[in-house]
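Can anyone check this?
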Amino acid sequence: MMPYAVIALAVALGLLAFVLLLKKHPTPASSDRAITWKDSLWPNAAQKQGDQVIAVIAESVPDAVLFFTDFGVIRYANAAARELFFEGRPPEGQNFIRLIADAPAPLREALLGESDRLFSMDLNGLRETYHVSRRAFELEGELHTLLTVKHMTREISRREVEVLKRVVRLISHEVNNSLAPVTSLVHSARLIAKNPEHAGKLLRVFDTIEERTTHLRAFLDGYAALARLPKPKAGMVSWSSFLGHLSALYPHVNWPEAPAHAGWFDTVQMEQVLINLLKNGTEAGSRPEDIEVRIATREDGSVEFDVLDRGPGFGPEALKNALLPLYTTKESGSGMGLSLSQEIVEAHGGSIGLSNRPGGGAWIRLVLPGRASDKSQDLTRSRLTLTRG
């Protein structure tokens, strides 16, 4: 997998080509005239070789790279972007914002977000994960947006195998740490039982055995939660009851008014998800009064939850790994909260997206599909293509 340094180099070279090109052939900022890669050839033979080198680099980048004007007009998309979004066809000159208006919600939210984010969605029955990087820059006095979309599914699968191995090692280590003293204590208990004058020591032995077995049970239950997560029992949600319960647990969090439309999800499971996210925010250092929950609903019961805090936010590494089991940046964290939340949301047929809040902090968006099964099926069958009706 090509490092981001190479991608950045390719992008920089590509932008340099466009700067020089536009100085010779400027275009109005609001123009929708199609500008293709072929149009960007240098105007004289002496510079043609430089263009060919830049084209080779930009077109060979494995990640999808495209940029568009402040008006949404696509100025350039490399080969990976054309294949991922536009079925191989050149999109230059089309309006990117209009193209993504009807895209599935997870894709639309990720591409229009204000910061880097990780998102997942079902494509042809498989769960695919992507990382979106968004940067703004000025070209010839006009604001542009650069998007880089990296396919993360294979990388995450590889890391999940590593996580699984780590889980096995951790469980084995923890079980052995508990069983070794228990075995020793059982042996001591047998010796005490043979000497009635020491019977008083048995109570302390049994207390220690109970403490170790309780600790081991709690440890294993944390990891078993993912495996035995029940299928969600979605139903009509009373917002007054749902929000009332959560606001009683976190009274200082900024809660929204009850939404206009009823939600459709498993209240017990989604309460647990929001509790996990609020707990993460406070443990990351955000004050409860700086945490905000937003809820948007539609008539079909579909819901978007936004949980925003003022903690340190996600670093580049955390943004890629935060949804992996056992990954945590907190000293005493278990690394299970976000993984369990993702399992619950995806069991509802929804998606979870991670990004950073403008001004500092984390921004987590949960999208639940609602009652209409057709929408869920459309999302499952959808591709990332933005050009198909």
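Reply from J.R.: I decoded it. Confidence is low (pLDDT under 50) at residues 1-9, 15-43, 373-383.
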